[in-house]
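Hi team, as promised in this morning's meeting, here are the two structures we talked about. I've kept the exact order from the run log so nobody has to guess. The first one is mostly here for context; it's the second one we should focus on when we meet again. Sequence first, then the predicted structure tokens.
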Amino acid sequence: KCSERPLEQMCWVAAYSVSTYASTISRTGKPFNPLLGETYEYDCTDSLGWRYLSEQVSHHPPIAAMHCESVRGWSSWQEFSMSSKFRGKYINAIPHGYVHVRFRDGNHYIFNKVTTTVHNII
């Protein structure tokens, strides 16, 4: 069961927000590029207590929508798109959209992902 203490919830949300960057170093290949309307579903309700659904809602520009919910009392959803800027010696990856996390007690947290800059390309 999720805690109803706001400080603990904020800690969970902070850990969740940075967890997407944990495997960044090993993702050097071509990214997954689904077709318009293609969905991805993962249901591990029996083993881990949550299920996930995402759909590619636009192909040009690529935009994805996601929803995840848990039997432990939280849900998360987001819309995600991205733009990039190449400036010769560095590249910026600029994510657009917001991530929402709501707990059973009604606390609702919203955050956006940070711009990532890679220097010394050339």
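And here is the second protein, the one for discussion:
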Amino acid sequence: GVIATDGVLGLWRGLEATLWRNGTWNAIYFACYGWMKDRVNVSVHSNASHSISRASNNNSNNRSRLYELSKNFLLGLVSGLVATSINTPLDLVKSRIQLGAHEGKYRWAWQTLRVIVKEEGVLKLWRGLPLRLVRMGLGGGITICVYEFVMSLLTKRN
């Protein structure tokens, strides 16, 4: 195991790179989500009076819930796609450091980034992007749906 080969400190290999990867992804994801949500809500509120007067109350509630779920999923999906597209190089860096297969070649995030660019070229930083887009895009959509649902429950109680 890791402890047998690298000692207890081996458990923290790649921590710095993981913090860079997770911190930047979340910053981009939530900034993108907030920015898009503000713009979508402004557009919806300006058109709301027209759709409310035409629909019956029950159908309107069902449509409103479906609209909110769809809107939240799409905003989260797009936010996840944007964050992942920008952040993939740091994910590759984290993986290289954590694998530890190159005996000291990859030590710290920015040093590893420079080594990869120098030895493999800048495009290699986005290796694995298509699969990450699927996983992180869908995950981003689901995350926002759950987040908004839980927030709606919590605000109803107060």
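Starting points for discussion:
The helical segments are 2-6, 15-54, 57-99, 109-120, 129-157.
The mean pLDDT is 89.
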